[in-house]
User: Which sequence fits this backbone?
């Protein structure tokens, strides 16, 4: 798996790892797949454009065969619209294709599926930033824009997942004292990095 | 219409004004209702909580009987989940109830429907902020958090709509030089105001 530039990693603790879910019930039967769809939107969309320097990895940990990692590449992705169903439909197609025994496979342009675990994904990345309310203020943090930002879905990261980040030397960076949905956090990170870019 | 505290006003140029749309096709048949659903999410949700000091008004201008304004009140709203279908379902219920000839009516707790036009909504508000790339930098702007922030959907405001804002003395405030989706703009505004609150 080649990951470059800015990366977002979302841990989807309950999102299903079968294509047999309904696009009409993303929050329920699909294990909060709606959150993942919104994170993909938040990470990749500009108005009438895509963020071509962003990779977004969703690590799906729900039944029946976790882990599965779906990677959306902003440079290559096609057939992606901003609505939740669109991102979820591309995830469904990836799950229909299935993950190869090793490495990753492209299911639709710019969308890749693999059996990578959270540990595998983190191991393949550098400059890990764990978004956490106790971290350093994002507006003061030394960020270049090519970091890998790690977020969790509606559940916190487990102690085991936090240990993986700690072992890799992840920095904690904070968006403030309020707690936000993962997709909102991604918008805030992208915005902060956008403002630094144009200065 | 009593509006208080922070308000977001989204102009939905194509969103339908009939309940006869499918929750399975919000971007198409419902006239980009997916954008409005995401704006409601962005304006009202914190992690495991709602922003109780926010009102969000969507001015629907699509066929067959525009204008219709749907107002979500963060303090009172119930049955709202973060996914697009959930907000859209509450809009659908409001449209089923229909707007009264004058004033507004509550369709479900915290959701109100009226025949207010964009001009009516703006007339009822003070401290209007028009989010526009040519405005004053949001990080330097004098904002108290109780402003009414005006955004457009995937189409720009028309010259007539801009004239309504100008007449009311709206200030232009900018989120930067990149162009963003309306829901992402709302997340950025809420974040900026959150950070000021806790200082």
Assistant:
């Amino acid at each position: 798996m080649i990951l470059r530039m800015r990366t977002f990693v979302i841990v989807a603790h309950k999102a299903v790892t079968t294509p047999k879910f309904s696009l009409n019930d993303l929050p329920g039967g699909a294990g909060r797949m709606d959150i993942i769809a919104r994170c993909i939107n938040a990470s990749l969309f500009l108005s009438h454009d895509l963020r071509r320097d962003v990779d977004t990895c969703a690590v799906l940990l729900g039944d029946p065969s976790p882990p599965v990692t779906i990677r959306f590449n902003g440079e290559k992705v096609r057939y992606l619209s901003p609505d939740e169903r669109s991102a979820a439909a591309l995830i469904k197609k990836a799950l229909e294709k299935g993950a190869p025994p090793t490495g990753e496979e492209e299911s639709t342009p710019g969308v890749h599926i693999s059996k990578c675990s959270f540990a595998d994904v983190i191991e393949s990345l550098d400059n890990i930033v764990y978004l956490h309310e106790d971290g350093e203020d994002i507006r003061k943090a030394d960020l270049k824009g090519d970091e890998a930002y790690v977020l969790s879905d509606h559940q916190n990261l487990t102690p085991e997942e936090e240990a993986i980040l700690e072992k890799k030397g992840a920095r904690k960076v904070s968006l403030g004292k309020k707690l936000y949905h993962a997709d909102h956090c991604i918008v805030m990170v992208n915005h902060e990095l956008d403002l630094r870019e144009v200065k």
About this structure: Helices of chain A lie at 33-44, 84-97, 118-123, 159-167, 182-197. Chain A touches chain B through 36 residues (CB under 8 Å).
